[in-house]
Specification:
Elements (H helix, E strand, L loop, with lengths): L36 H11 L5 H10 L1 H9 L33 H20 L6 H11 L4 H4 L2 H13 L5 H9 L2 H6 L7 E3 L6 E3 L3 H10 L14 H10 L3 E4 L9 E4 L9 E2 L8 E2 L6 H10 L2 H15 L6 H17 L4 H9 L17 H11 L10 H17 L31 H13 L4 E3 L2 E3 L3 H4 L9 H12 L6 H11 L5 H13 L4 H20 L7
Antiparallel strand pairs: 1-2, 3-4, 5-6, 7-8
Helix pairs in contact: 1-2, 2-3, 4-7, 4-17, 8-12, 10-11, 13-14, 13-15, 14-15, 16-17, 18-23, 20-21, 21-23
């Protein structure tokens, strides 16, 4: 059995068991191999939150280049989130957006936060063939904030909108804009970072070094991939913090002031800031409100900044392990592309997703889905129907239910554990295996049961539930149990199952019976779809099959 198909037929639940060391020598050269369902599925699994069968078929038909064109195409920003159920809001009528409305009280803000989280989930559910939503999550994990600290939903929306606007844009520009974003200014204490003098003279220090430290350590240049190489000093952190003095946000939790960001000269340290030899002993002099851009520009001149973000992109889209071959054959040339394109994300990321390395068999089906990929993927791949606009109450409630499901699986959107993001993307040695534990695996199984075996989620007269009979419409020959099972397996699993596994699944569908028994039963149902007894029998078999397929460890991989 392939080493990555590690479940076998015993349905072992330890999907976090260690995988054998990889032997990989492919690089960033353009992929020139065969193009079919396996390759299209792999690309879309890593680029979307669960590709639909129709999206995979489209990608197969148009080819790799056209699929990449679609994934990287510019998208209009979506309409903002709405007040979907607070009829008592005195300033935002039902069905209107609240993003610029005054703060009223805690209950109003809490409801607006629910609206934002539900709206974000709806964008993932109804995404096009585009990398934008996956990149929004990437940047949120990279430039992490916590909603429990920021609190004000208008701050949170502005942060989300900035990330969505720059999701496939320029890394340097995003770093500049996130530095003076009101949510980030609050979360990492930039709002309280002002010049202080211990002697009352012209020798200043920063009152808060939090953002200066994280800008260097987590957001741009890093400490080196294994933490042993250091690309800045503590004096550099202090100097960076001094550069960043003077910025404040206004309007948080206020019903009087609109949200704004201001630079105040009397809070800024105007004296020269000396940096270490890591930055060629650069001195940044007073440049007022643009001085922070001088700091970020200096950081982006360092070659390690490009390599740092390329490693993070690699771990997000390919695999967590970066050995010497990957560093030299993938990360280094990818970083060169990024630098030569002035830190535009598209050229470097497109080179990665269109490379022979990305499509190397060893890189397929080797990553554990994060909770959003797992939960949203169920709803997209099974094409579960959601309420449509203008029925915004059930629409938002059903979207928010999915947010609750992923929170139970320990990935709460807009509230990662800390400023470093989720441990699955940085914590040695486990990385993505953090997603599977004695807490998260039962939570995943509960999600599967809710939408397949139980009654789904019901609210406001609407039900979200897997409809296996609808899913059969995508099968080329649903009368043949072998075709049905193999095509569902192609959709749900990132690698081909062995024949013994397919036989096991057929035994679940028609235990101890010949193939024609399924053919006869399903044909009988098609002749009389009003026969509730026949329908119940067919549905029972299909739900048992899906439940077994979704209990396999392979279902947790992408």
């Amino acid at each position: 059995m392939d080493r990555r198909s590690f479940l076998g037929l015993n349905q072992e639940k330890d999907v976090s068991k260690a995988l054998a060391p990889r032997q990989i020598h492919s690089g960033l050269s353009p992929y020139a191999g065969s193009w079919g369902k396996p390759q299209a599925s792999h690309l879309l699994r890593r680029s979307l939150f669960g590709p639909k069968a129709s999206e995979i078929s489209w990608a197969v038909n148009v080819g790799l280049d056209a699929t990449l064109d679609a994934l990287f195409a510019d998208q209009n920003l979506p309409e903002p989130p709405l007040n979907f159920y607070d009829t008592a809001d005195p300033v935002v009528p039902l069905g209107n957006t609240w993003i610029d409305a005054p703060y009223v009280d805690g209950s109003r803000n809490s409801r607006r936060r629910i609206s934002l989280l539900a709206w974000s989930m709806g964008l993932r559910i109804h995404q096009n063939i585009s990398l934008r939503e996956k990149m929004c999550l990437f940047w949120h994990n990279h430039f992490a904030i916590q909603s429990t600290d920021v609190v004000d939903s208008r701050f949170l929306y502005k942060y989300c909108n900035l990330i969505r606007e720059q999701a496939l844009g320029n890394f340097n520009t995003l770093a500049e804009r996130i530095t003076v974003d009101p949510a980030m200014l609050h979360y990492l204490n930039g709002n309280s970072n002002f010049r202080q003098s211990d002697d009352g003279g012209q020798t200043f220090r920063a009152s808060n070094e939090n953002y200066g430290r994280e800008l260097l350590e987590l957001f741009t240049i890093g400490k080196g991939d294994d933490g042993t190489e250091i690309y800045y000093t503590e004096d550099d952190v202090r100097a960076a913090a001094r550069v960043l003095t003077g910025w404040i946000h206004r309007g948080r939790l206020s019903n009087r002031f609109p949200i704004s960001v201001e630079f105040r000269t009397n809070r800024h340290d105007p004296t020269p800031k000396q940096f270490s030899s890591h930055f060629n002993n650069r001195v940044i002099t007073d440049n007022g409100a643009d001085e922070y851009k001088d700091l970020i520009g200096m950081i982006f001149e360092q070659p390690e900044t490009a390599r740092f973000i390329c490693r993070k992109l690699y771990r997000w889209f390919v695999y967590y392990e970066i050995d010497e071959n990957v560093e030299s054959q993938v990360i280094a040339p990818m970083a060169n592309i990024l630098r030569f394109s002035n830190f535009e994300i598209k050229p470097a990321l497109r080179a990665l997703l269109g490379s022979e390395h990305f499509f190397d068999a060893v890189n397929q089906g080797c990553v554990i889905k994060n909770p959003l990929e797992f939960t949203v993927g169920i709803h997209r791949q099974f094409e579960i129907e959601f309420p449509e606009y203008p029925n915004i109450l059930p629409q938002y409630l059903h979207w928010y239910r999915l947010h609750s499901e992923t929170t139970n699986q320990l990935q709460e959107y807009l509230n990662p554990p800390d400023v470093a993001g989720w441990p699955a993307y940085y914590q040695l040695p486990r990385y993505h295996t953090y997603w599977i534990s004695s807490v998260t695996l039962p939570a995943r199984q509960n999600t599967v049961s809710l939408y397949n075996k139980d009654q789904g989620y019901r609210s406001s007269g609407f039900q979200t539930l897997i409809q296996p009979l609808t899913l059969l419409n995508e099968v080329s020959d649903p009368l043949d149990p072998n075709v049905l099972i193999s095509e569902w397996a192609e959709l749900l699993f990132p690698q081909a199952l062995e024949q013994s596994q397919l036989d096991f699944l057929k035994e679940v569908l028609i235990p101890g019976l010949p193939d024609y028994e399924w053919t006869l039963e399903y044909r009988s149902y098609l002749r009389d779809t009003a026969d509730q007894e026949l329908k119940a029998s067919v549905l029972s078999k299909l739900r048992a099959l899906l439940d077994t397929m979704m209990s396999l460890a392979e279902f947790h991989l992408c």
